[in-house]
């Protein structure tokens, strides 16, 4: 198996969302994604990047000196070598997170890895790419994120959460598609429907820096 990955960028910042929001974190953004969500904010990661050996990637991670590492993209699992790389990070003592679109299987990920997995709402244009078999591989500590662009997306997410009892099995995040839905409106809907085990998720980095800023 190859011991290299195509890397878009490696940088340090604070985690912008989900359970570890606000924590210092090293981000490893892999190049490439099989999806084309209409609200995607990392289109620059679809192509390009540099091929790097595992050892060189880990050298950059060590240089930051941060124990929390997130693998992101694009879609990190589209590069199958990422599974082995993340296991190496775990074995070296890092807390490893992955943010995945939900289109690729998470079955082979090491159990120590914290998974943040999207379920794509209809407004993304990628609903048909949801790999629902992943629900059997997620752990109770993992997170499912719905990025919601409008009322139709919200109702779809609400109904799926209720039908599959997702909020009793995992941590469920409802996030606004930035610039398409105001957080206040999403909060109103959550409270009206008494979705008491759903967590509002905001992308903090887009409020700290410009929404289009890279490397933050």
Explain this structure to me?
By secondary structure, this protein is α/β, with parallel strands linked by helices. It has one domain (4-208): TIM Barrel (Alpha-Beta Barrel), CATH 3.20.20.70. The chain is built from 6 helices and 9 strands, in the order E-E-E-H-E-H-E-E-E-H-H-E-H-E-H. Helix 5 links the parallel strand 8 (171-176) and strand 9.
Secondary structure tally: strands: 9
According to CATH, the homologous superfamily is Aldolase class I
Q: Give me the strand/helix succession.
A: EEEHEHEEEHHEHEH
Task: Give me the Rg, rounded.
Answer: 17 Å
Reading off the top of the CATH hierarchy, the class is best stated as: Alpha Beta
**What is the beta-strand fraction?**
25-35%
Q: What's the quick description here?
A:
By secondary structure, the protein is of the alpha/beta class.
Q: What is the secondary structure topology, with strand pairs?
A:
Elements: E1 4-14, E2 24-30, E3 50-53, H1 54-64, E4 68-72, H2 81-91, E5 95-100, E6 114-118, E7 143-148, H3 151-164, H4 166-169, E8 171-176, H5 183-192, E9 198-201, H6 205-208
Parallel strand pairs: 2-4, 4-5, 5-6, 6-7, 7-8, 8-9
Antiparallel strand pairs: 1-2, 1-3
